[in-house]
Amino acid sequence: MPVQSIYEVFARKNHEEQLQHVGSVNAPNDELAKVYAWTAYDEESWIEMCVVPRKQVIPVLNPDAKPIWGN
Amino acid sequence: MPTFKSASELSETQRQALRALMLALADTKLFLGFHYGEWTFGTPALEACIAACSMSQDEFGHLRLLHACLATQFSAQSQELLERRGLSTFANVPSLDKPLQSWSDFVAVNLLTDGAMTALLSALQRSAFEPVANFIDKMLEEEKHHVRNAQGWFRSLATANEQTQTALADSCRRVLASTLEWLGPNEQEMANTLTTAGILNMPWSQVQQKFLDWVGALAEEQRLDMGLEKQNSHWLPRHAMDFTTWNPITRRSTATQPDEKLLYHLRGSKNAIFKLGEA
Tell me: the pLDDT tens digits for A24-52? Predict the structure, then answer.
């Protein structure tokens, strides 16, 4: 049974800009996470966008604290 | 291969063949846009609502481009394309004639009907007919997300539980049969005309086979029986389809047509008094 995971979404508008965290989506697999990120955060003309499973993010400081995105 | 800057450079046979194909593509996108839009509510996940709504906007954007091309190149009046057409003249894929009953119907239409349109768009890339070649790449770029959405949901439902697998298999078999009816026989006079002129970049049978091979591989991967079987490394319908009564204009074998209530809603007939005139 597929379960939903949280994916963090990162994007940038031009090559001079660094990738920035723009939000998160819930998805059962990577394929849907990509679609959901693209459709949910379409307010800008991004030149790059990527998703990262939240479980794969390794906190460096305060590993027990909530991540910066809060939820 | 010579290119055509406008429809006035085409022969009458080429004009008729291209007009019919573009109208059938536009009709299918009209109904895809409507059904995707209807599923802005009631999806199994919030993100899926946003994706459905976004795909609806894409389809209506594509429809607008196709209608503009039909109007400028083939002198089709905008009202003739939607508002003043008899139900029996619509050439959309029949799977879209009625409201989609369940999420598995949505996923099947997203995968198979929209997928078949993407296969057709690929065959129109670098078309010798320049007005079409100009917008195909943009459409295909947006369709990538539709394919991803469809595959993502197909794989999720196919591996969820027996109930969702059964519902998905039923929806896929029904929608695939309807989509293959629209794709029609291997040999089509009008499609041959377009391929010979370079307006389609491959023979029609190749468009069908590319679509079937993609669907067959997905079905095999998820062990879901869609009524296809592998023969000499290619996927084909297990039972040959009967196209003796197939109409190349409506792309239907039987006297099916869109639901009247659905079209009433889609046309905005209820709000006809608020429509503004055209300059």
Answer: 999 999 999 999 999 999 889 999 999 99
Alpha-carbon distance of B58 to B56, in angstroms, equals 5
Helix axes B260-267, B12-38, angle to 10 degrees: 90
Q: Cα–Cα distances in Å, from A63 out to A9, A69, B141? A: 20, 14, 40
Task: Provide ipTM, 2 decimals.
Answer: 0.80
Instruction: Give me the amino acid identity at B178.
Output: S
Set of chain B residues whose Cβ sits within 8 Å of the Cβ of A39: 47, 50-51, 53-55, 145
Q: Tell me the DSSP string of B50-111.
A: HHHHHHHHHHHHHHHHHHHHHHHHH---HHHHTTT--GGG--S-GGGSS---SHHHHHHIII
Does the CB of A25 have a partner CB in chain B at under 8 Å? yes
Distance CA A21, CA B53 (A): 24
pLDDT tens by residue, B58-73: 999 999 999 999 999 9
In chain B, the residue whose alpha carbon lies closest to the alpha carbon of A7 is B47
Chain B neighbors of A42, CB-CB under 8 A = 54
Measure CB to CB from residue A36 to each of B51, B151, B155 and give the nearest one. B51
C-alpha gyration radius of chain B = 18
Cβ distance A40 to B159 less than 8 Å, yes or no, reads: no
In this prediction, residues B146-150 reach a mean pLDDT of: 97
